[in-house]
Write a structure and sequence with these properties.
This protein has 470 residues and is of the alpha/beta class. It is 38% helix and 20% strand. α11 crosses α12. The longest helix has 18 residues, at 29-46.
Length: 470
Amino acid sequence: MFMIVFYYDMTKSLIKNMDELLDGYPEPERKLREDMLNSAEDAIQAVQPDELLRKKLKLRGKTLTVGDVKVKLTDFDEVVILGAGKATHRMCHYIEQLLGDKVIRGVIIVPHSVANVYTHSSKVKVRGGGHPVPDKEGYEAAKELVEIAQSVGPKSLVLVLISGGGSALMPLPAEPVTLEDKIEVTRALLKSGATIDEINIVRKHLSMIKGGWLARHLSKAKTISLILSDVVGDKLDIIASGPTSPDPSTYADAISILKKYGIWDSSPQNVKARLERGMNGEVPETPKPGDEAFLNVRNIIIGSCSDACTAAFSKLTKLGYNTIYLTHRLEGEARYVGQMLARLILDIKCKKTKRPIALVLGGETTVTVTGKGVGGRNQELALSAAIELDGFEGCACLSIGTDGLDGPTDAAGAITDCWTLDKGRKAGYDARAFLEDNDSYTFLKKASSLIFTGPTGTNVGDLVILGKLR
């Protein structure tokens, strides 16, 4: 029995509520919004795992080429697939189709929402786990993954599939840390405004699988990691907390981060004990650059946010926009980034052409949660931009998670413009109050500004597009 994979039909709109997002808008504002939404769809299509792997993986007879690495499959008794992340099911499906019965066994861990609509293949097991907060099912799946990793030998070729979300999906706490301890500190970090780099530094030092430990478990085998990056700068040690990458950070760094965000004192005692013992040299550090664990490991990035941004840039340019690709390294507090970008699009002028203007950015912002509302970083960015765009016709801001899920909501992001706040006002909603309460979802839903896609099967971070007609 083979894995059954449900793909969305790219001949149809990926955005499920496209009509609602365009309904009632006059021209040319309607076309501006439509062009931005279509460009976002093109960007997400460009970073589908099967599309990316088709360019990176080639099978010629018995030789598998992965990027610049060539391996003879006849040198191995088995091909094993291991992995975790929001896009690994798509990656696994493509590789199983390519290699057929050469794949002998394996396990991948994906969000429950994905695992629930797949059947297990006869070769690679598909397990569900919690995201963004880890859970018991992910813990049990991570144990199974490590057991397989520890069983491989010199005649095993291991393909490790990694994408965003992998950190939460494969929780395997190091003693004396428990799963409950890991959940508690993860929740605190997610609410604190800490960057993904900082969150993952802490995670690595509480884990038996992250921060290069998986590479240590796989040290007897030939290992190739295929990585879909959702991290600003494509840092291998940060993507899914770098399970097969050397870790330059330390226990002292992890402690410093928890103290920086006021989490240290309230952290579980087991967490503090583990980190303090590590800082004192009583437990081993994560494997560092030069460690023998990485002698037989190659880490290859198959795609990243820059690919999504490039696709959006190309689409908008073809549609006649004077397009500026600003960066794929966007970071910062979401509400302040949205404010700054809205002011930028309002002020920008192009004297040499009368074409409409578009700005393309990618990356990952953060949200410091102080309120009691519901939202995500893309929704906060779009709502803060709407506050700045209020009353200025001919401008719009789109912010979307390429995985189709923004924070703990069912929305992928939002598109806002000069009329967004007015729609909320008619319902008696004050945008600034909702933003202050981290309740962007509620306001944007009332303003019919949320973008819904469902899980897209990929994950390379966030895409932001701003447009201006004149």
